[in-house]
From TrEMBL:
<dbReference type="InterPro" id="IPR001173">
    <property type="entry name" value="Glyco_trans_2-like"/>
</dbReference>
<keyword id="KW-0808">Transferase</keyword>
<dbReference type="GO" id="GO:0016757">
    <property type="term" value="F:glycosyltransferase activity"/>
</dbReference>
<dbReference type="Pfam" id="PF00535">
    <property type="entry name" value="Glycos_transf_2"/>
</dbReference>
<keyword id="KW-0328">Glycosyltransferase</keyword>
<dbReference type="InterPro" id="IPR029044">
    <property type="entry name" value="Nucleotide-diphossugar_trans"/>
</dbReference>
<feature type="domain" description="Glycosyltransferase 2-like">
    <location>
        <begin position="5"/>
        <end position="114"/>
    </location>
</feature>
<protein>
    <submittedName>
        <fullName>Glycosyltransferase</fullName>
        <ecNumber>2.4.-.-</ecNumber>
    </submittedName>
</protein>
<dbReference type="InterPro" id="IPR011990">
    <property type="entry name" value="TPR-like_helical_dom_sf"/>
</dbReference>
């Protein structure tokens, strides 16, 4: 059986650290906690799980902190988590079984990362991350914000998922770090430019975000998943500032990079809704319901774009056309994904007189 060091960097995580460590303590052989300046009970909680606790002076560099935590590990493999991550029971059982049969030729074990889940417990927003790596490989973290672990060799995907259960309120921390680096005239890699644009968008600096998404695309060096996402996010920014025609151009640009994805097709349908071109909107939204996520993709997957979201918009389109039966039909499909959604339940009451029959 392989041995595993769990390595974490934390700061003021008293609300979530115990939940995280409690879900994985039995699976690891040592717990390394690197504290970057907690002023709450984080360290005391870590002590309850027999963690080895180290201090690290925060220098606005997540990769530096993570590399320090990795340098303290002593077991064969290193597993990294954040304090608001957990392993659910089913995934704990999978990892326990895998640990006893682990192939020591594996350099990195990838796990799904479920960033959000629906009422049914199924992931609505997920991606893959390299999670457990062979210590002897000496893999390093890169990036002062939105850091990534550069791995190579034998990389194997697993059926195990880490579930993110965020407790903290979103802050300007990451954006502030980017702005500090820009003030120092630090050169940004294409990846850093993309993530900087994401922070700008999240803080509603839409025009500035568009500028940096475009700068990222102009490098022609971005990961294909980020390239497609950047095109869609440019469209969202233009829509937010009511430049709908520019949004259309951004959506269509995404078709140059790969076979149309549900994310782009959905946005195309929404564009035609803005133009009150309902037949065109219905065409594209209906297409979105037939598409599936790319197989074997490590990019972020938002399942709503090929499940419930287009059905909600189809419900609205058919309502505006006066076709209440089809409107009801699509609202009912959307409800199968989110049965407690207040908006869709309100739609159901409005459309109650119409039979839920298949319009085809």
């Amino acid at each position: 059986m392989i041995t595993i060091s769990l390595c974490m960097i934390v700061k003021n995580e008293e609300e979530s650290l115990g939940r995280c460590l409690g879900s994985v303590q039995s699976l690891v052989d040592e717990i390394i906690i690197v504290d970057t300046g907690s002023t709450d009970r984080t360290k005391q909680i870590a002590e309850q799980y027999n963690a080895k606790i180290y201090d690290f002076e925060w220098i606005n560099d997540f990769a530096a902190a993570r590399n320090y935590s990795f340098s303290l590990a002593t077991m064969e493999y290193i597993w990294w988590l954040d304090a608001d991550d957990v392993l659910l029971e089913n995934d704990r059982e999978k990892l326990l079984q895998l640990k006893s049969t682990f192939d020591r030729s594996i350099d990195s074990l990838a796990m799904d990362y479920h960033l959000s889940t629906g009422p049914d417990g199924k992931p609505t927003f997920s991606m893959k991350r390299n999670r457990i790596v062979r210590r002897a490989c000496g893999f390093q973290w890169h990036g002062f914000v939105h850091e990534y672990l550069a791995v190579h060799g034998k990389i194997v995907p697993s059926p195990i998922a880490v579930t993110h259960q965020k407790e903290k309120v979103h802050t300007t921390r990451n954006l502030d770090i980017y702005e500090e680096q820009r003030a120092k005239q630090t050169p940004f890699s294409p990846r850093e430019t993309y993530y900087y644009a994401n922070e700008l968008k999240d803080h509603r600096q839409f025009e500035n975000a568009i500028t940096h998404y475009q700068a990222f695309l102009d490098t022609k060096q971005g990961w294909i998943e980020d390239v497609i996402a950047a095109s869609c996010k440019i469209a969202d920014c233009y829509e937010a500032i009511e430049k709908i025609d520019e949004a259309l151009a951004a959506i269509l640009k995404s078709f140059e990079y790969a076979v149309p994805r549900a994310e782009s097709v959905f946005r195309l349908g929404r564009y035609f809704m803005h133009r009150d071109a309902l037949d065109q909107a219905i065409f594209w939204l209906s297409m979105a319901t037939t598409l599936e996520p790319p197989k074997e993709s490590w990019g972020m997957q938002q399942s709503g774009y090929w499940t419930w979201l287009p059905h909600v918009q189809l419900c609205i389109c058919y309502y505006r056309k006066g076709d209440m039966i089809k409107s009801h039909y699509h609202n009912e499909i959307a409800l199968t994904y989110h049965p407690d959604d207040e908006m869709m339940l309100s739609n159901r009451k409005l459309l109650l007189p119409y039979q839920p029959e298949d319009p085809n």
